[in-house]
Amino acid sequence: MFHWLRDHRRAEARNRLFPPAWEAFMRANVAHYCVLDDAERAELRAMIQVFLEEKDWEGCGGLDLTDEIRVTIAAQACLLQLGLPHDYYRNVESILVYPSTVVPPAHHPGFFERVDGPVEDSVPLLGQAFNQQGPVILVWDTVLHDARHPEQGHNVVYHEFAHKLDMLSGSANGTPPLVDRDQLAQWVTVCSHEFLRLRRLAEKGHKTFLNAYGATNEAEFFAVATEAFFDRPLALQKHAPDLYGVLGAYYRQNPAGRVHRTCPVET
User: Fold this and answer.
1) Where are the alpha helices (DSSP H) in the chain?
2) Contacts of residue 41, Cβ cutoff 8 Å, sequence gap at least 6
3) Contacts of 18 (CB under 8 A, 6+ apart)
4) From the centroid of its chain, how far is CA 71?
5) CA max distance for the chain
6) What's the CA gap between 166 and 12, in Å, rounded?
7) What is the DSSP code (8-state) at residue 56?
8) Is the pLDDT of residue 250 over 50?
9) Which of 65, 98, 210, 248 is most exposed, with the fewest beta carbons within 10 Å of its own?
10) Per the confidence metrics, is the pTM higher than 0.85?
11) Cα(38)–Cα(16) distance, integer angstroms
12) How far apart are the first and last CA of the chain?
């Protein structure tokens, strides 16, 4: 009964008229929206309607949480799942948005909370994704800049929601749920090679195509590689064609094939 009601609500949300103002927000703010084909844009709009309805949204630090902010974030989060069988990020219940870079309050473990390592001090952040059903934290000015300038290769929404996709496998280990053993074997071979290559170059202080932050661990590598896959697909194909291939097989998208498209004229 629960699933029937959920699916019924989702169908209703998907079939609602997409507000023209929301369309305008995406055309102005989300560069990738303009390079999708008609079917992809229609599906993305339908996904956004469900995503906005099902998630709890909170403006923090005095931020007035407007439709523009919610739609701009939702469009980017849903783009990652555009080609995937998905459940609208079932492991995301809430999204907290700050106006600018924040230093979150220190976390103090609860009485029944297991602590596997030292509790880290709070540091400035642009985004953060918590495990299990934990929230995603984003910073609006960075979200907007990244969405409008994919050529720079950084996108905090893609990064944090890639972590959430990764966590669907049970932990953030750089390997999201894959189709079968063959895909897993290819994933491990390619990603391990590219991760270790990035780590070697970063340790030597060499300039790297992928953000050196991806050398931190396998989870960060997947998130950084996802940013490059969507934001700089042609360059990723050139520098790491096998990595582009496994990411394309996972996301079931080909961003390199969209690069030269332009946003259709409104009618």
Assistant:
1) 2-15, 20-29, 38-54, 67-80, 140-148, 156-167, 181-203, 218-231, 233-239, 241-251
2) 33
3) 45, 48, 49
4) 14
5) 59
6) 29
7) E
8) yes
9) 65
10) yes
11) 17
12) 42
Locate the domains of the chain by residue range.
2-107+120-258
d(CA 22, CA 12): 18
Amino acid residing at 104: P
d(CA 233, CA 255): 6
Structure confidence by residue, pLDDT tens digits, 65-77:
999 999 999 999 9
Q: Are 49 and 88 a contacting pair, CB within 8 Å? A: no
Helix (H) or strand (E) holding 212: none
C-alpha 183, offset from chain centre: 21
In the CATH scheme, what is the code of domain 2-107+120-258? 3.40.390.10
Pair of tokens at residue 63: 């931020």
Cα separation, 229 vs 247, whole angstroms: 7
DSSP state of 137: E
Spatial distance between the Cα atoms of 8 and 124, rounded to a whole number of angstroms: 41
CA atoms within 13 A on the CB side of 256: 13
